[in-house]
Amino acid sequence: MKRLKVLGMTLAATMLLAAQAVSAAPVTITYWQYFYQSKVDLMNDLIKQFEAKNPGIKVDQVTFPYESYNQKVAASIPAGEGPDVINLYSGWLPMYVKAEYIQPLPKSSFGASDMKANFYSFVSPAVNFGGKLYSAPTAVRTLALIWNKKLFKEAGLDPEKPPRTLDELADYARKLSKYDAQGNLIQAGLTMQPNGQGHNWIRDVLFRQFGAAPYDATGRKVTYATPQGIAAMQWYMDRIVKDKVGYPNFMTDDVTAFKAQKAAMTIDGSFRVATLKAMKDLDWGIAELPTHNGIKSNFASFWTNSIVSGVKGKQLDASVKFLQFLTSPEVMEQWLAKVGELPANPKIAAAHKDDPIINVFMKGLDYAHVTAFVDEAGQRNLFVDMIDEINLKGAKVEDVLKRTAVAEQKIFDDFWK
Amino acid sequence: MTLAKKKAMTAYVFLAFPLVFFVGVRFGPMLYAMIRSLTDWSLLRKTNQFIGFDNFKAVLTDPVFLKSLGNTLRYAIVGAPIVIALSLGIALLLNRIIHARGLFRLIYILPYITPMVAVSWVWRWMYQTPPMGILNAMFSALGLPAVEFLISPDQALYSILAVNIWVELGYCTTVFLAGIQTIPMDCVEAAKIDGASERQIFVRIILPLLMPITLFLMIMQGIQFLRIFTPIYNMSSQAMGGPLDSTKSAALYIYQMAFTKFEMGRASAASLVLFAIIMVVTLLQLRIFDKKANNQE
Amino acid sequence: MTVDKRIGLGIAYAILSLLSVVMIFPFLWMLLSSFKDATQIFQPGLFPSDPTFENYIAILFSGNSRFPRWFLNSAIVATCTTASVLFFDSLLGYTLAKFEFPGKKIIFLLVISTLMIPTEMLVIPWYAMSRAMKWGNTYWGIMFPGMISAFGVFLMRQFMTSIPNDLIDAARIDGMGELRIFMKIVLPLVSPALATLAIFNFIGNWNAFLWPLIIASKPRMFTLPVGLANFSGEAGSDWHLIMTGATVAMVPLIILFLIFQKQIVRGIAMTGLKG
After folding, report:
1. What is the pLDDT of residue A333?
2. What is the ipTM score, two decimals?
3. CATH of C66-230, one of 3.40.50.2300, 1.10.3720.10, 1.10.260.40, 2.60.40.10
């Protein structure tokens, strides 16, 4: 009898210990982002900081190449093999929400008022679907004009005075372009790379500056096929066809051309800052995008963090904590320092307004627009093909722009039906 | 148990795993693709349903797919005969020379054994427009105008095709050379004594004897070119098969449909269409060559 | 030799040499480019003005380079599939050549007919299968479609037919087990064919692209070709590194090729003759 009692007590004690062990066992959550060296390195640091603060939680970072990221996500989440927290491009959100890959953020931690108070104003509408918030970014990105000071000097231009208007931009680009004896472009005055940031520049900057809103207020109707839209597109194509200051895939792509000092000016995003800073021989300047008709415009986008559908219980609690950490001021500061992207919280960004580079992007954010892509790759490709058809096949701007508008409208209609 | 029965038993034991493999990894999946091509299977949806032949209707009316089919046929119809003709010529030349035959042959095989991805990037690098590509730098030094190569919708397909020909050339040359060397020399000598010209010997003796090899190579190369994927993926901007879909092959279309658009059912249907085309082209070639071979006899 | 013949020979050498230049030049250009740094790569001229090994150091020895891992992955995949193909293909070839059993013809036809099924069609079901089995980003996932090659079966069967039956029967009478007969008597007899098959398979798997591209999405599970294809991305195209990577990816094959050139040439010739 006594033996039995001892046995029983031991058993009970063991069970108790086991139960404790279970509850103390760390929760492991998985975080996915695409592979970009500076982001991956920083994230490894951030995870260490987070784990030190939250001893019960472990975070695994998994990365995929940019090209196959969407593919991997689409394949894994429905199969239940996906991550808990995922980093997404803002333009992909509608698709992810519609496919039910991600779940709404808990109101207690990410309320609508928090969102308004702590993030740039364009963030909230871009992550709001049916009144629910699905995502929160660490950083935001926007476009700027970047130029090569050495090439400016060579062309007899003041390296500290970038073009301020589109007319000046066109004029500078002509002066900065160089050709060989056969007339081949060997130095681009301005990069013309629609499959890079070029399509965003056309969509949310040029169209608006020429007086055409690209989409209506709902974001579901294409509205750029107007005389103003055609004028904007004509301006872009004139740089390629008439002035020959650059063309798509010159030197493989815009980034390669600019890094190789074979392109004098480029339109690129804040995320490029870290790459350019690492180039020792490159003397570059950065300025707000040129205006036109007195209109300033810019394109904003962001990589944002969401919690995957089906994550619940302790995983969910841990994921929410991690998301709060990722959107905290301290992380935003580190992100700015290491990656170069602007803090998503305007108050934190404001503290850095004396930094000339950050200042340019901050100003851009004030008048930036966010395009609600439903099929970012498909919509980008429409613009790439449009420009190729005009440039390579000699198609008329008006015809192709109208056709593109119809095709893009079809993408919207198919998505929202 | 009789010896014959025992041997049969052994055979079945030896065959067991390989048969499971062929059923599980070849026939099973093929059947699966056929069935799934009749559904609206997508990775973006949790459920899918039977939709009959809608996928076939959709791909066969998709201008991009039709364009990719046209491109695929162009790759094969232009590419395979060029490879065969060139390699036959080279093999005949190699057979003539006395020195350095082995060295030449080694040099010609080199592209065939190196990774297609690597050589695609090397060629993409060489094909760049000024001021970057070495080919255009050479043209420019000779005072010739620049060639657009990969950025031109009219030239890109042929630029990529040239790389594929460059890769396959060594393989076909080696096969032909081995074939030529099996031709009995006394036959050729006898013809010479009878006063046959080089041309007659070539047309009447060598060519007919090489017919089976030519047929084999034609079919294999035909299939190879119909399935072209890797050089296009690696040589077009962002692996899109551009500019303006001018280089996109059926295989790349299938890949994009399945793995960037996640429409697996539709991609399966497209892959069946490609399969059918490969079958038809192969059978057609067999037919034509059969007739020719019969006429020769 | 007549003058005519000599001229003909001269022309033949000239054409062949010219072609050799076309065949070799891309490799030469790749190699030369790999010794140029990020600035030199865009300068005109064939030869690097200031040759550097820094690209090789960056690719092979820098801490965050994934290239060594891709190299290892390719080596593992190519070696394991080749070992499997050698064993199963020769076993299958042997069985189909030397055994009589009901259904033999059908089985042979079935195996050979799989050669007609294009990979493009199979990758979709393979992908679905790998998802269900959770084989994504594993070596097995990359390798399983290539564990047996129908072409190798065909090749080995041809060779096995030429083995005298007496040898095998004698071993049976000596009481040797069937598997031992296969391993100890049959395999050594076809070792030249095995060498050819091995090299071909190794090269094929080292160079394979479509399936590894689909199944390996984590950079640490990339094979060399998939890694190379992903070299150029959002941060532009680092051509000096791409050329260096391409060079490194080719080196093992060129070494293999130089060692086994006889087998490779014979193997290629055989595919044509026996086909």
Report:
1. 94
2. 0.92
3. 1.10.3720.10
